[in-house]
Structures are given as structure tokens and as C-alpha cells.
């Protein structure tokens, strides 16, 4: 598990360095653009990443100090402060907040990376460092795409993060998937990804779950792994769907799958 933690922390560092370099070149008009998260402008995405970094750092520090998860009052105070910032302030402060979090991850010694357990600020079992860093990597990677998609329709998730996130996507599928997106129908989908190659199944019934690849699916989805992750997280608009995505089915369409995963 230490290796997994190491790889995830390295991916966080790479992602932060990449996004921080991009943000340094953004002006006021760029920050005001609608992001890939359609209800937020680019600065609001950076605000979310900045406040999330502060809250995540408080959780990590609480685990190290034995004081537990951050309180609701602390979290609400962080959100309010970031909400009150100007666009330029959000762009400037986002990198500082995320640098503090990533450096704290990097400073963890091998024993902490293996043994530390971090309490979350909602009802859940504590996470080890690999799981906690993966939770942050998922948030950071998808919101980085939101920033890039504001000006680049062909933006893709960071390759160094995709394989790590692909192997932990099952929990997200069950959490965000909406079975009623098919209007009462059920479906079994064979999913085949590239870069990296994976073969798995998606079942939509009473719930939405990942399964082993079905022998007799109702549909077969072939897609780059990064788009499969974007599908699950709701970042799948036709204008951001590459030509390599193909769904073969007599009964199911890509728009059906988009309704199963409306985003969050």
C-alpha cells in the first residue's frame, strides 16, 4: 500500500505543477469563462480546489496530531473565505493552498504512509494515506479538466492520474450513478478501455454497479480510459467526447449513459 500512496502523491505533485503553471497565465477574462463544470466559472473551480486543499490538509494534520477531522464550523469558515475572494485572489491563493497540502503528503515518512488513518468529516470509515490521497487526486484531476475545458474542447484527464483513478472508480460509480436515468429499464454494458486497457462491466438495475465483463451484454462501450472516468463524473458532453468513443447496442445510446451519470 505504501507504493500506492507514493504513486498517488507523485501524481498529485505532477497535477499541481501543471495546473499552477496554466493558471499563472490566466487573465481576468480567462478566469470569468464558464468552466467544464457548467455552473462555475474558472475562478470558482480554483476556489473549490483551494478550499478543498485547506480542508484536506486540516484532516491530514488532525490525523497526525490525534485531534481528528476538522469541524463543521472550520469547514464553513473556509468556504466563506474563499467565496469572498475576487477572481484574481482565487487564482493566486489556489496554488498556495494546494502546495501546502501536497508538501505535507510528500513529507510523510514510509511508516506514516503505511499506518496512518485519517478520519473524514462525514460518516465514513477512516482512510489510509493511499485512499485519502486518491480521494484528493480524483477531485483535483477532474477539476483540472474543468479549468482546461474552458478553452480546450479536446482536454483530457492527466495520463499519470488515469490508471490510479481507474482502479478505484467502483465506489464513485455506485455513489454518483442514477439507475433511474434509464427510465426503469435495466442494462448490462461491457466496457473496454484503452490507455490503459481494461475490460469490465457496468450494470444498471436497481442500482448502478461495476461488475466483471458480461458474456452477453446489452451494449459494448469502447472508450479511452480517461473518457470513461469523465463519463462517470458527468464530464461527457458531446463536444467533449472524442471520436474514439463507440457504443454498440440496439437498445442503448450514449445519451442514455449520460443520463445515468449526470454529474455532481
Quick recap:
The protein is an alpha+beta fold and 264 residues long. The chain is 54% helix and 12% strand. The longest helix has 24 residues.
Count of folded domains: 2
**What is the CATH superfamily classification of the largest domain?**
dinb family like domain
For the record, give the distance between the C-alpha atoms at the N and C termini, rounded to a whole number.
Answer: 29 Å
What's the CATH architecture name of the largest domain? Up-down Bundle
Q: Mean of the pLDDT scores?
A: 96
Estimated radius of gyration? 19 Å
Any idea what the shape is? globular
Main β-sheet, spatial strand arrangement: 5-4-3-6-7
Reported by name, the CATH topology of the largest domain is: Four Helix Bundle (Hemerythrin (Met), subunit A)
Uncertain residue ranges: none
Structure classification:
alpha+beta
Say how many strands there are. 7
Strand content: 5-15%
Characterize the largest beta sheet: strand count, sense, and whether it forms a barrel: 5 strands, mixed
DSSP helix count?
11
Fraction in helix: 40-55%
Q: Supply the CATH class of the largest domain.
A: Mainly Alpha
Protein name: Maleylpyruvate isomerase family mycothiol-dependent enzyme
InterPro entries: DinB/YfiT-like, Maleyloyr_isom, MDMPI_metal-binding
Organism: Sphaerisporangium aureirubrum
Keywords: Isomerase
Amino acid at each position: 500500500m505504501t507504493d500506492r500512496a507514493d504513486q498517488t502523491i507523485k501524481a498529485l505533485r505532477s497535477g499541481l505543477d501543471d495546473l499552477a503553471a496554466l493558471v499563472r497565465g490566466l487573465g481576468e477574462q480567462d478566469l470569468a469563462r464558464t468552466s467544464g463544470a457548467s455552473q462555475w466559472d474558472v475562478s470558482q473551480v480554483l476556489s473549490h480546489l483551494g478550499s478543498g486543499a485547506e480542508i484536506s490538509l486540516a484532516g491530514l494534520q488532525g490525523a497526525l496530531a490525534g485531534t481528528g477531522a476538522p469541524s463543521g464550523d472550520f469547514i464553513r469558515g473556509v468556504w466563506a473565505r474563499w467565496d469572498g475572494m475576487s477572481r484574481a485572489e482565487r487564482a493566486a491563493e489556489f496554488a498556495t493552498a494546494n502546495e501546502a497540502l501536497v508538501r505535507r503528503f510528500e513529507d510523510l515518512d514510509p511508516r506514516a504512509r503505511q499506518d496512518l488513518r485519517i478520519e473524514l468529516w462525514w460518516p465514513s470509515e477512516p482512510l489510509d494515506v493511499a485512499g485519502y490521497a486518491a480521494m484528493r487526486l480524483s477531485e483535483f484531476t477532474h477539476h483540472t479538466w474543468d479549468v482546461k475545458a474552458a478553452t480546450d474542447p479536446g482536454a483530457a484527464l492527466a495520463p499519470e492520474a488515469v490508471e490510479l483513478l481507474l482502479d478505484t472508480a467502483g465506489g464513485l460509480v455506485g455513489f454518483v450513478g442514477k439507475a433511474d436515468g434509464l427510465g426503469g429499464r435495466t442494462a448490462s454494458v461491457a466496457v473496454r478501455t484503452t490507455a490503459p486497457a481494461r475490460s469490465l462491466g457496468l450494470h444498471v438495475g436497481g442500482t448502478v454497479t461495476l461488475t466483471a465483463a458480461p458474456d452477453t451484454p446489452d451494449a459494448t462501450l469502447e472508450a479511452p480510459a480517461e473518457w470513461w472516468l469523465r463519463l462517470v463524473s458527468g464530464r461527457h458532453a458531446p463536444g467533449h467526447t472524442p471520436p474514439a468513443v463507440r457504443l454498440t447496442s440496439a437498445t442503448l445510446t450514449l445519451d442514455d449513459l449520460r443520463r445515468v451519470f449526470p454529474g455532481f
